[in-house]
Amino acid sequence: MKPSHYNYHPTFPLVFAILLAFSAASTAVAQPHDQFLQSSIRILRFDTETTPKPLVIVTPLLASHIQATILCSKRHGLQIRIRSGGHDSEGLSYVSQVPFVLVDLVNLRSIDVDVESRVAWVQSGATVGELYYRIYEKTRTLAFPAGSCPTIGIGGHLSGGGYGVFHRKYGLAADNVIDAHVIDANGRILDRKSMGEDLFWAIRGGGGGSFGIVLDWKIKLVPVPPTVTGFSVTKTLEQNATQLIHQWQYIAHRLPKDLFFLVTISRANETVQATFSGLYLSLVDELIPLMETRFPELGLTKQDCTETSWILVMYMSQFPNNTLESLLNRTAANKTWFKIKSDYVKEPIPESVFAEIWPRYFNEDEGRYGSIVLVPYGGEMEEIPETQTPFPHRAGNMYKIIYTIGREEEENLDFQRYLSWIRRFYEDMTPYVSKSPREAYVNYRDLDLGMNNGSGITSYAEASIWGLKYFKNNFRRLVQVKTLVDPQNFFKHEQSIPSLSSW
Ligand code: FDA
After folding, report:
1. Is the pLDDT at 98 greater than 50, yes or no?
2. Does the C-beta of 394 come closer than 6 Å to ligand 1?
3. Fewer CB within 10 A of the terminal residue: the chain, N end or C end?
4. pTM attached to this predicted model
5. Cβ contacts of residue 43 below 8 Å, gap of 6+?
6. How remote is the CA of residue 156 from the centroid of ligand 1, in Å?
C-alpha cells in the first residue's frame, strides 16, 4: 500500500491480452464464476437468471491490472462496473443494461493500522468488519466511525459518506479520510496531492462509480474508551411505544455527542414494537442518571445495559455464539430481496403519524417484512459545514428515516407487492419530511428518485432530479469536478454524476 505498490507492473500486457481476447469474442459471453459472483451479491433481486451478467469479471491483484482493464474497456467501448462489497441497494456495482466488465476488488483488501500515528491505510476491497477487526486486534482504544453492517465494502461505503454509532461524535467515515489513491479514466494513479483538492473532495461522499476507481484510503482513527455501554429497550404499542417515539424526536439529536441512540420499528406478532438502542462512550453509572434527566419516560435501567468494548456492543447481538472472527467473513449471512429508501426530518413528526399511519402499514401483510429505523443526527453532524464534503445533510436535520423491506428467498415470490408497500409508505410520509429538495442518502441508492438517460448523455437539469436530493447544492460542484476529470463520462451508471462535456 505504499505509493510504490501502485507503479506499473509487468503483468499489465498479459491482463490486457486476456481482456482483448474476451472482448474480441464479444458474441460469446464469458460465463462469470458463479460462486464468486454470488458471494458478493447482497441483494437477491439482482441475483436472478435474467439479471444481465458481465462479459468478464476482473479480480485485480495489483493496481496495474485495473489500469489495464480501464484502458482495454475504453478501447473496446465497454462500460466498467466497480464492486467492493457489493451492497449497492440497486445493484449498480455489478449490473448494467449494456455490455460491461466487472472489476471486483475482493483481492485488494489489505489493512495497515498504525496505532502510534492513529491512522490506517485500507484498501477498497476490505469490508468494514475486516477493518474493525484489524483495528481491535491492535488496540482497544481506537476505532473508526463507519457503518455497522460488517460486510459493507470500504470502497462504496466511504465513497458515499458512511454513518454509524460514532457519527454524532466524530462525523462520517468520509469526514475522516485524509488521503487516497484513485485510478482515473486515463489509467493514472493519483494521490491527494496529484489529484488536487476538488477531486479529493468529490470522492469523499459524492457516491461511488463516478470519478474513478479508489484503490485505498488513508483514514484517521478516533479515540474510544476501552469500556463503553450498550443498551436496548423494547416497547410495544400497548407499552406506550407511540408516545415514546414521538418524544424521542425532541431528545436524541440534542443529547451529548457521546451518546448515540436510535429507534427501530417493526411488527412483532400482532402488534408493532419500537426498540430503543444505543451506545454510550462511557460507563453505565453515568448513562443512567443522564437518561433519567433527559428521557425518564423510557425507564432505562442497569439491566438494559451492558458494559463492554465498542466492537462487542456493535456485534454482540449479531454473533452471540461466534467469536469476533466472524467479522472476517465477507459473505452476508442474511441475503434478501431488498429495497431501501431514506428521508431526513427537520421538524418533529406529529404523534398521529406514529399512532395511525405507521401501525396501518405494519399491519398490512407485507409490513411483516418491513422496518423503519430512526437515526439521530446533531452533535458533530450539526457542526461540520454542509460543503465540507459532498454529503450535505448536516445542520438542521434532527434525524434520518430508513425504510426497508426484505424478503427471504421463496419460489414465485411476488416482490412487486413489497415494492409497492415501501413506495406507498414513502409517499404518505411526504408532508412530514424535508422538502425542496426531499433529501436522501446516496449510500441508500434509490432509482425511484430518478435516473440518468439511457443514451449515456444526461443534462444537468435531468440529473438534478435525483442529484439535488442526494447532494443539495454540492451537486453543481460534483458536476464541475466530473466534467474536469472524466469529460468523456467513462465511469457511469444510472445515477453517476454526469459530465457536461459529454452532451
Ligand atoms: P458496492 O461494491 O456495491 O459499491 C457501491 C457503489 O460504489 C457502486 O456504485 C460502486 O460502483 C461504487 N464503488 C465501489 N467500490 C468503489 C471504488 N473502489 N471506487 C469507486 N467506486 C466504487 N451505510 C451506512 O452509511 N451505514 C450503515 O450502517 C449501512 N448499513 C448497511 C447495511 C446493509 C445490509 C446494506 C445493504 C447497506 C448498508 N449501508 C450502510 C449502505 C452502504 O454504505 C452502501 O450500500 C455502500 O455503497 C456499500 O459499499 P460496498 O462497497 O459494499 O458496495
Report:
1. yes
2. no
3. C
4. 0.94
5. 87, 88, 89, 91, 335, 336, 337, 338
6. 4
